[in-house]
């Protein structure tokens, strides 16, 4: 069975990314989308952590690298 377009893009993933917090380190407790770009570049060079957090950080790195972080701002829950 062929995959539908919705299988490749799930907006819930972006909402979760916009509202997840960094669980450790210098920026513990910060929203991932608020992490400074140099911190993400450091992870990109050293290696992202395994699992879901690593996928989120790698995705965020690509978003910030391409100047698209403004897309996450309206998704942040107040």
TrEMBL record:
<dbReference type="InterPro" id="IPR024530">
    <property type="entry name" value="QSregVF_b"/>
</dbReference>
<protein>
    <recommendedName>
        <fullName>DUF3820 family protein</fullName>
    </recommendedName>
</protein>
<dbReference type="Pfam" id="PF12843">
    <property type="entry name" value="QSregVF_b"/>
</dbReference>
